[in-house]
Amino acid sequence: MRALFDLLIKNKHWFLFLLLEVISLVFLFSYNGYQKSVYFTTANDVVGSTYNVISGITSYLHLKEENHALEACNERLRQKVVEMQQRLAAAQLDSVKRIDVLPQEFNLVNAQVVNMTLHKANNLITINKGEADGIQPEMGVVCSRGVVGIVYMTSRHYSIVMPLLNVNSKVSCRLRKSEYFGSLIWKRGHADISYATSIPRHAKVQKKDIVETNGFSDIFPPGIPIGYVQGIDDSSDGMSYLLRVKLFANFATLREVSVITNYQSPERHFLEEQAENPAKQDSVLNAQEKQKTLEEEKRKAEEQEKAAKEKEEKEKEELEKIKTELERQHAEAVAAQSANKNTENTDTVR
User: For residues 12 and 82, what is the distance between their CA atoms, to the nearest angstrom?
Assistant: First the structure.
């Protein structure tokens, strides 16, 4: 402390000079407007430059922390991009899976699932609509995502549906892009997987191809989605493909279904039964032969009638010609007779 006092006393004239300079500068900038404005302007520039330098140094010292924060932010953004891509793919697939509206000629009866099994070989679904609602066996059942199954049995107010998850289920199907068709069957083990069989080896098949109904049966109209191709294998005989089909219908959460009530065509069904029944085939062939004989007889009668008419017309024409000839000859005779009488009268006068 004594050394400090000795330093102050030894250099007191310098400290006095500095004090007087500060006082003079304070008076100068306090009572003179121009100097005051120059001071504040210069001071602001100096302070701003100083702050910029300090900010740059501070930012540089914290670059490591900022890099970590940016990397974490980028990772979160990458995860969101992947999530959005997955949602978009799911939304596009879901838009394919859902049925918009069936054609106007088809009527749907909405029903609720009241009972269902998924773990058996012969799974069945019970719905709360039956014959009183116009439902009959062998009618197609669909949901908002696609095909569910076929009505198996009916009572007054309930129906039993054989779903696609039944080893006895067999639905005609086709590939939407190439329209090659086959049959959809189910093998035990998965509640969302079926198999499309009899797809030709030359068919162009790719994963994610849509499988839909082909309309060959009188149960489902064409174009109702069933699922999409998840895997491509060879059949047991190696002559065709065996396609692993991921079903659109979610049977585990299935609650609302619709029954297609008026797609069946009685005329078509009757005609197909006749084609498959030998006895009916014989009766149809006999009827066709009889009809052919009647048509042949009718044709011959028409030809005979036509020939008779032509003969009659020909005879009429010949009679007309004879009549015309006789009239001509009669006119010539009358004219000759008149000429003879005129000659005789002239000779008498002479």
Answer: 76
